Amino acid sequence: MSDKVKRKYVKHDHEERVMAIKKVLEEGWSIRAAARLINANHRQVSFWLSTYEKYGNLRPVRKHGSYSAGFKRKVVSDIVRNSLTLQQAALKYGLPCASAVRTWKERYHKYGDAAYIVKPSSVRKPDMSEKKKDRNKIGNVAELASLRKEVEYLRAENAYLKKLQALVRERNARPTGKG
């Protein structure tokens, strides 16, 4: 690994974002220096700065959420046609971040226009919760079998010890041949 340290992705609250933007605009800091101050990626700070300059605040026009297939197709085709970066596209369409745009673009390159067709619920893959339930059922069946085997072993051990105890009692109850 080089001098650069890998950073975890960190969500920055509104105050941190404003502080970074103020450092750049009012105090003349570089975008990289402001990013280091709050432990952010310089591209993210650049995106916040562009959002602030375009809209007058750091709040995106659109909120995180689901977008229509037509909207996604429009954004991706604009990226392809006009060679926009993900950040430029997110800024142009007022999206809160470029990561969603990256996903839309990757799906487009993988599946073409079919990437944005919404499948009916009967065709969709089951939710993760359903998969987890299935996994839990399998785990429970295996655990149940293991517990049954253990109970069977303990019952046999208990029966053996009772039999041994009865034999010892019987032996002690017999009169000894010594006189």
TrEMBL record:
Pfam families: HTH_23. InterPro entries: Homeodomain-like_sf (IPR009057), IS150/IS1296_orfA-like (IPR052057), Trp_repressor/repl_initiator (IPR010921), WH-like_DNA-bd_sf (IPR036388). This is Helix-turn-helix domain-containing protein. It comes from Heminiphilus faecis.
